[in-house]
Amino acid sequence: MRTRNAVARDYYGILGVSREASDDEIKRAYRKLARQFHPDVNPDPEAQEKFKDINAAYEVLSDDRKRQIVDLGGDPLAPGGGGAGGPGGPGGAGPFVGFQDIMDAFFGGAAGGSRGPRPRTRPGADAILRLELDLHETAFGVEAPITVDTAVLCTTCSGAGTAAGTHLATCEACGGRGEVQSVQRTFLGQVVSARPCTVCQGYGTTIPHPCPTCAGDGRVRTRRSLTVKIPAGVEDGMRIRLAQQGEVGPGGGTAGDLYVEIHERPHDVYSRKGDDLHCRVTVPMTAAALGTRLTIKTLDSEETVDVKPGTQPASTLRLRARGVPHLRGTGRGDLYVHLDVRTPTKLDADQERMLREFAKTRGEEVAELSKQGGFFSRMRDAFNGHA
Ligand SMILES: [Zn+2]
Ligand SMILES: [Zn+2]
């Protein structure tokens, strides 16, 4: 049985192709591996496992929608992964896929749905872009300028792919059907199949005079500047969707969406947990004992807070609603101020005398350490064998 992990599988790695691989490269890689590992050819149980992986990878990467899910970090075959290949889907079928299924996958048979010429105009892919923001920007929102590098509609031909004043021509090789029938001899015997017409790549039409700007693709790559409105309260890892700002499809097809993924830079003072913020403030031992008033710089204001007399080390002050605004709805997280009570490290003679008198009045026993070699240095010597 196929094992499905929570972690997205490396479908590109399984087929040994790059993330930028074209549909043809994916198909070629699959065909090569499928021939090598098909159980009819290679009865080794490990090969069968491998064959299942290869099929899963091809199922995903040959489907634009599933491939997008992979490119966005998901796994369309994972339970609840949003793909049609969940339990009961094509990916879950049988111990291995029959040879005809492979042929169908190549040549657009039953598994591929309707036959006939494929449309030149197809929807574009989604795109993703990382955006680094500092805490102030994620907390209060910002209008961030971004530069996007995607395919856009070719303005010379408006997506048609044909040079000015020219038109598509019906493919003479297939008569416009986009496919040709053929009988193939394989190791399973004769297989009759319809394969895409190689002259028109299955479109049923050819472009006798391609548009000089886009070479017939109907789209060109370009850098664009956009402004993305980041709402207050976003968090590291969140994605903002900009509808139809992704890649324009072949033949000028509807653009996919653009996802802007938020990356929050670490802050010098505050660490963020959800919408709460945490910071550390050092308080002298005397101030902790006697109580004091602190001025705390928050993200957007200054607050005066009282440290109660007798405050213990590792105490925390909570400033309500001084954290990050909630993304949806009203209100804000809290700011937690962690107090570091600091013991003085150097005392002059007067200070030491006063502190000893203070200890005496409280009946606290304090051993006298000689200036040369106190208790701790004697301990150290003992550990080092110098005693
Ligand atoms: Zn063009
Ligand atoms: Zn043709």
TrEMBL record:
Its main location: cytoplasm. Binds 2 Zn(2+) ions per monomer. Residues 141-223 form the CR-type domain. InterPro entries: DnaJ, DnaJ_C, DnaJ_domain, HSP40/DnaJ_pept-bd, HSP_DnaJ_Cys-rich_dom, HSP_DnaJ_Cys-rich_dom_sf, J_dom_sf. Signal peptide: none annotated. It comes from the Bacteria. Zn(2+) 1 binds at residues 154, 157, 211, 214. Transmembrane segments: none annotated. GO terms for biological process: DNA replication; protein refolding; response to heat. Zn(2+) 2 binds at residues 171, 174, 197, 200. One of its GO terms (cellular component) is cytoplasm. Residues 73-94 are annotated as: Disordered. Residues 79-94 have a biased composition (Gly residues). It is found in: Cytoplasm. A zinc finger (CR-type) spans 141-223. Keywords: Chaperone, Cytoplasm, DNA replication, Metal-binding, Repeat, Stress response, Zinc, Zinc-finger. Pfam families: DnaJ, DnaJ_C, DnaJ_CXXCXGXG. GO terms for molecular function: ATP binding; heat shock protein binding; unfolded protein binding; zinc ion binding. Participates actively in the response to hyperosmotic and heat shock by preventing the aggregation of stress-denatured proteins and by disaggregating proteins, also in an autonomous, DnaK-independent fashion. Unfolded proteins bind initially to DnaJ; upon interaction with the DnaJ-bound protein, DnaK hydrolyzes its bound ATP, resulting in the formation of a stable complex. GrpE releases ADP from DnaK; ATP binding to DnaK triggers the release of the substrate protein, thus completing the reaction cycle. The J domain is necessary and sufficient to stimulate DnaK ATPase activity. Zinc center 1 plays an important role in the autonomous, DnaK-independent chaperone activity of DnaJ. Zinc center 2 is essential for interaction with DnaK and for DnaJ activity. Homodimer. Belongs to the DnaJ family. This is Chaperone protein DnaJ. It comes from Micromonospora krabiensis.
